[in-house]
Design brief:
The chain contains 3 helices and no strands.
């Protein structure tokens, strides 16, 4: 978790009024790190003119893909058993 300092993670949670149990906190921090990486990679493309808009961290940055889809009104189909 070296990409996000403890201070940065605590500031994110404080800014968006988030509190988690220890186990959930670890998972949410990992999701936040992935979101931060995605934002940074996208914004490099913005800086080089490959895309026309910037991304930013927000209150959704610690959600799983399924949670994000549900909040955005997308239907999530569960995987089929094999």
């Amino acid at each position: 978790m070296s990409l996000v300092s403890d201070q940065e993670w605590e500031e994110y949670k404080s800014k968006f009024n988030k509190a988690y149990s220890d186990d959930e906190d670890k998972m949410r921090r990992e999701r936040y790190i992935k979101s931060k990486q995605m934002v940074e990679e996208h914004n490099k493309k913005y800086e080089s003119g490959e895309v026309t808009w910037k991304m930013a961290i927000n209150h959704l940055s610690d959600l799983t893909e399924e949670e994000y889809a549900m909040r955005c009104g997308k239907k999530v189909t569960p995987p089929t058993a094999t």
